[in-house]
Amino acid sequence: MRPGGYFDSPWPAEDGGPQRLQTAPIASAPGLNLRPGERLACTTRHTLLSTMTVLGAPGEVYLLTHSALRARLGVPTTVCVERIDPISLQPLARSPRLPGGPMWPGGMALHRNGDLFVVYGRYLHRLDRQCQPLASLQLPIDAPYNSFVVLDNGMLVTKNLSDTVAARLTVVDPSTTARACPDLDCPEPSIARLSAMGNTVYVVGVRSIFRYHWSDVAAQLVFDAGWRFDYIGATGQSYGWDVVLDGQHAWFMDNGHHRYLFRMVGAGVSPTANRLLRVSLSDAADHQALDVCGAPGGSITNPPLVDLQRRIVVGYDSANRQMQAWRFDPALRSLMPLWHKTGLGCASHMLLYPATGELVTNDYRRFGEEVVVLDIETGQERGRVRVGGLTQGVVFPSVGWGRDFYWCSMGKVARVFVQ
Q1: Is the pTM of this model over 0.90?
Q2: Residue ranges per domain, the chain?
Q3: CATH number at 14-418
Q4: Own/partner long-range contacts of 124-131 (Cβ < 8 Å, ≥24 apart)
C-alpha cells in the first residue's frame, strides 16, 4: 500500500511517494531480475521537456511534459499531461496545453480520490484519468513552484522555488482545489522539492533543514521549532536538494548550486566537495556530514538513495562523475564505505528494486544518455542501454508494469525493458 494520500499503484508520484525512497514495491514491481544471456533494450519517443511518468490502474501510464522556448522569449510556458501506451509510448489521451507561467520542471501525482494533480509554474491543475481538466488554482507567488507532496490526510502541499526570498508553503484541499488554510512563510529560501512522512512536511532550505506538522486543531501546518539543523554553518558549501526520509533519518546532499545546461558533468560552482548529510528525525542534534568523494567542485541536483532492507546509502557527485555507497549501522550511527565508482555520469533521480538489489541510474558519456543497472551490494554493472538523449537526465524515472521501467531525459521518454 502507498502512503495514505496517494492512489494505490506501483508508482503514483515522483520518487514513488513523498518520502522520496525511489524504491519499487516488492509485491507489484519485484524487479528486472536480469539473468545471464539477457540484456536491456529500449523504445524511445521524442517529446517536449519530459519530467516524469506515474502509474495509475493496471496498464495506465501518465507522462508530464512542458514547453521551454516560450520562456526564452519571455512568454509564460505551458504544461501537458498524456496517458501513453505502456509499450509504444504513443499518446492515448492528452490534456490541452495548461497554463503554467515561469518555467521549472513541475510535478504530477495520482491522488487517492482517483484524480491527477499537477503543479507547474504558478498553477495547480486537477485532471480526470482521461487527462481532461477539472479545476485549476493560480498559486500566490509569480514564480515557479517546485512540485508538491500529498499528506496522509489527503492535503496537497506546495511551495515556490527561491534562493533569495523566503519560501512560502501553500496547502490545497483536494476536494475543492482551493487553499485549505493561510499560506506560511518559511524562515529562509528553499530550492529543493518538499518531502513528507505522514502529515509532516520537510523543507530543505538554502541553509538549514526544518519541518512542519499538520494540526487538526489549528487546521493548518505548524512549524516545529524544536527540530532544525543548520547544515551550512561556517562552511563554503551551497544549498541542498531533495531529502529522503527513511523513517528514522533524513538524508540529502549539498553543493546544489551548479551551471547545468545540457549536462551536470563539470557544472559545479562551489570549490568544495559535495557532502552526504544525515539528520535524525527524532533529534536534529544527531547529525553527520561526509564528503561523497572529496573531489573539489562537487555538485548534484537530486537526492541520494537509501536501501532500507540492506542498510545501504548511495550518494554521488554529478560534476565529477563519481558514486559512493556506504553501509549504515543505525545502532552506532556509522557509515562504512562499501563501494566506489568513478567515471559514472550519474545525475538523475534513481530507482531501486529491493527484491533483486538492482539500482537504476544514468551514465552520461560520449555526449549521450545511457541507463545503467548496478548491483547495490557490490556496484557491479548488470546491464546498460543507450536511450539516446543528448542531455544528461536530471529528472524522474518510474517503474513499469513488468520487467521494465520508464526513463525521462528532457527531450525523450524511454521504456527500458529486459530482452
Answers
A1: yes
A2: 14-418
A3: 2.130.10.10
A4: 124/148, 124/156, 124/158, 124/172, 124/177, 125/79, 125/98, 126/174, 126/177, 127/81, 127/95, 129/56, 129/57, 129/60, 129/83, 130/83, 130/93, 131/62, 131/81, 131/82, 131/83, 131/93, 131/94, 131/95
